[in-house]
Amino acid sequence: MSESTTWKVGPLAEASGLTVRTLHHWDTIGLLSPSRRTSGGHREYTEDDIARLYQVLALRGLGLGLDTIAVCLDSGVDPMRVLRDHRESVEAHLAALTGLRDRLVHIEQEVADGRAPTTSAVLDALRATGAASPAAEQAVRRHLDDDQLRALATHTAALGPAAHYLLEIEWPELYRRAEELRVAGIPPTDPRVRKLAARMDELGALFSGGDRTISAGVRTAWREDPAALSGDASVRPGQWDDLTDYLDAAREGSKR
């Protein structure tokens, strides 16, 4: 494709396997907008737009929603990183699924034999999803019982490779945006803060299956041992309390 190549919406829809309606919708929500206009005022997609389209399709192929994809791209995800992560995530997911299958077979056998699955087996399954380090496991175990751990493992596994993007890209970006608003003195009742808190709760529900006691337990673990949960040894307990209280205030304001 030469540098001067541009695409009108119809030909691009046909080439990409999408519908014109889909591209118009993505334009309306700001996910993918044609960035060039012809002398007659018609909008056309450029090479940069096509590169973004690939990223959108690659991330959507990982199971991410449009809101999540927008956050990923707007936070500066490099195109080569998307391509590399897409390939590596497929390879890693295949390997993880094999390991997870072995662990689930073990748990299933325990149940078939009339024995309750051990916490160790459940944490092995959780680790197989890539969602927990040993330190994080210990922090979470202090606040969740065995049944809750099993539910957390099941819901995390169901997310597949999307879990990586939700945990490593979108969630940190949501917290970064919330902290910017807090530092700027924006009240927690502001719609922007409420929207961020609501999206965080949506992500929490994906991992917890909507069980608020699990979500509350994980949030408490984050408060008490943020270094273990974040993987950043420099973080100290209480360091994020102001931001946590800010988001909790936004949640409370939304209930009124």
Question: What features would you describe in this structure?
Answer:
With 256 residues, the chain is an all-alpha fold. 70% of the residues lie in helices and 2% in strands. Strands 1-2 form a two-stranded antiparallel sheet. A hairpin with a 5-residue loop joins strand 1 and strand 2 (43-44). Helix 1 packs across helix 2, helix 4 crosses helix 9 (162-183) and helix 9 runs antiparallel to helix 10 (191-208). The longest helix has 34 residues, at 79-112. The radius of gyration is 21 Å and the shape is globular.
Helicity level: over 70%
- Structural class, by secondary structure, is mainly alpha
- Give the helix tally: 13
What oligomerization state is this entry in?
A: single chain
**Could you report the average pLDDT, rounded to the nearest whole number?**
78
Gyration radius over CA: 21 Å
Q: Mind describing the biggest β-sheet? A: 2 strands, antiparallel
The order of strands across the largest sheet is: 1-2
What's the helix-strand series? HHEEHHHHHHHHHHH
Global geometry? globular
Strand content: under 5%
What is the number of E strands? 2
Low-confidence stretches: none
Distance between the termini: 54 Å
